[in-house]
Design goal:
The complex is a heterodimer of chains A (253) and B (315). Chain A is 35% helix and 23% strand. Chain A is α/β, with parallel strands linked by helices and 253 residues long. Chain A has one domain: P-loop containing nucleotide triphosphate hydrolases (Rossmann fold), CATH 3.40.50. The chains are: A alpha/beta (253), B mainly alpha (315).
Chain lengths: 253, 315
């Protein structure tokens, strides 16, 4: 980890009233790695994601991404620099078809937003890129479906896929396995695994089994602080993690 | 898809044939009503762009109608009769006003956006009320109308009708192109979920501002037309109840549908015309119709027509 990290967070803080949701977080994510962030409910994981992606302004601290400070950039400018995110609660465009959802995500990174004359569905390059991404998610044959016709698992896959559409350098996945059945969960885990080397991933997840199977690096967030960070097997053995994360239970990880 | 194009073509032909048909039937009086419908259709369609496609609920849209009307009326009263000059001045004046108002208002969302657009329009309402040189609260009556290239005078009923029809047709065609364009898809996406659109890297604020200004200018053109139809402007054109009337038209006609503005304007103005002849309390009955549409036909008259003729067409 001595080479320059793709994402580097230093001394990040965020308070809500009297509660320190993010309390001096330092974190590095290297290019191409899958970095998992775990922690109990209320540890501040979703707050941290929102601070990194720009939906929430930080009280203090610095976020560096790809050689530049992005602490005060708007979410859309961060996205254009290659920092994408998915959401814990699915956020899709309900009045657009499956393909249109993906195409508008591809479009975001390819510009020409204000072109108002040409038919967008006549743009073959755009349609092909969007369709290719849908194939990868296993949604290729459902391109003309409405969002509400997709199963929960398919919506979650699209949720993650839309974050990948712009070919970002780093993608923040906020609990991609939330609410999934075993079969859907296995497919999503395989999808995330397939991202290794292509994208850097900061994976926020509750499902500890999946995390330890997928991650190159694991960090543990408790009460707004990173209490351990390292290779999965080292973190698994860390006594502080077992205590803080699992209360009095031991060796459950 | 083809059925929709056919229907549009038929509607255009019917609209083109209306003045000679009315004349032949000796019902010239209704040409004025038809013209009024066209003017309000232009305004309601512009609000539908803002509200139905852009998801921005403005309670101050009539301010742009009034600004367009006053810009034209002031030029006319100063002896400037060139329609091209009116067009240019309305576009610049309303464009600048909507850019400033939009740039400030769009920093807010939801009910705050409704309130701030309302506040701006009331400010302009009181401003034109206080400008005594151009009629103040009594309004301004005009003896002349805009002159179009080729010696056409908008004082003539038929000329005005065809001019208003051309503006509406152009507006609807632009809206149709916009809906199916790259930009149109971005705007629909951010209407559905602004946070997601921004997270994807879409320029949410700039996109909303462009829609706001475009809708403002189109509404200003409707205002310029209305001066030429009525020969009169008054501060009431900018009053927030006018914005409310435009909202009612959009909801009646169909929020976020291409034809909603036209259908809503036609329905409301015709209902007013017919019911006010029968009863003093026509607004009471219009209220029931509006209630029925909101409860049972969420896409308004346009949605009802669509499900009648093309049940499987997606929006």
């Amino acid at each position: 980890m001595s080479e320059r990290a793709l994402l580097e967070i230093r001394a990040l803080h965020k308070r809500f009233g009297g509660v320190a949701a993010t309390d001096g977080v330092d974190l590095k994510v290297a290019a191409g790695e899958i970095h998992a962030l775990i922690g109990p409910n209320g540890a501040g994981k979703t707050t941290l994601v929102a601070q990194v992606a720009g939906q929430l302004a930080s009280d203090s601290g610095v976020v560096h991404f790809d050689g530049a400070e992005i602490t005060h950039l708007s979410p859309h400018k961060r996205a254009l620099r290659g920092l994408a995110r998915s959401f814990q609660i699915t956020r899709l465009f309900a009045s657009l078809s499956v393909l249109e959802n993906m195409a508008v995500s591809v479009q975001a990174s390819s510009g020409h937003t204000f072109s108002f004359w040409q038919r967008v569905d006549a743009d073959q390059a755009l349609v092909e890129r969007a369709q290719a991404m849908l194939e990868r998610l296993g949604l290729g044959d459902k391109h003309d479906w409405r969002i509400e016709q997709l199963s929960h698992g398919e919506q979650r896959a699209l949720e993650v896929g839309m974050a990948l559409a712009g070919k970002p350098k780093l993608v923040l996945l906020d609990e991609p396995l939330a609410g999934m059945g075993a079969q859907e969960s296995a497919e999503m885990t395989a999808l995330i695994g397939s991202l290794r080397g292509e994208f850097a991933v900061l994976l926020i997840e509750h499902d500890v089994d999946a995390v330890f199977r997928l991650a190159d690096t694991v960090s543990v967030l408790v009460n707004g602080r990173i209490i351990a960070s390292g290779k999965p097997e080292d973190v698994r053995r860390d006594p502080g993690v077992a205590m803080a994360y699992l209360g009095s239970e031991q060796e459950v990880l | 898809m083809n059925a929709a194009r056919l229907a549009a073509f038929a509607a255009l032909l019917a609209a083109l044939a209306l003045p000679p048909v009315l004349q032949a039937a000796g019902a010239d009086f209704y040409l004025g009503t038809a013209s009024r419908i066209l003017v309000y259709a232009v305004a309601a369609t512009s609000l539908n762009l803002l509200l139905g496609y852009g998801g921005m609920i403005s309670l101050g849209h009539a301010a742009f109608f009034g600004l367009g009307a006053y810009a034209t009326a002031i030029l006319l009263s100063e002896g400037v009769q060139s329609g091209l000059v009116h067009l240019l001045v309305v576009i610049v004046a309303v464009g600048v006003a909507s850019l400033v108002i939009g740039a400030i208002s769009l920093r807010t969302r939801g009910v705050y956006f409704i309130m701030i657009t309302l506040a701006f329009s009331q400010m302009l309402f009181y401003l034109v009320n206080s400008v005594k040189g151009y009629g103040g609260d009594e309004g301004l009556t005009l003896r002349v109308r805009s002159l179009l290239p080729g010696g056409l005078d908008l004082r003539d009923g038929n000329t005005f009708y065809y001019c208003a029809l051309a503006v509406l047709a152009l507006e609807l065609f632009l809206l149709h192109r916009f809906v199916h364009s790259r930009f149109g898809r971005v705007v629909r996406a951010l209407r559905d979920d602004e946070v997601r659109a921004e997270a994807l890297g879409l320029p949410v604020f700039a996109s909303k501002l462009v829609v706001f200004v475009a809708a403002g200018i189109l509404c200003g053109l409707a205002g310029a037309l209305s001066v030429n139809l009525q020969g009169y402007v008054s501060p009431n054109l900018l009053h927030w109840t006018q914005s409310g009337t435009l909202l009612v038209m959009v909801i009646l006609g169909g929020v976020g549908t291409l034809w909603g503005g036209l259908l809503g304007a036609a329905a409301l103005l015709l209902m007013q015309e017919l019911l006010s002849a029968q009863t003093e309390y026509f607004e009471f009955w219009i209220g029931w119709v509006l209630l029925g549409v909101v409860l049972f036909a969420r896409h308004g008259l346009a949605g009802m027509l669509r499900s009648l003729f093309a049940p499987k067409v997606r929006s």
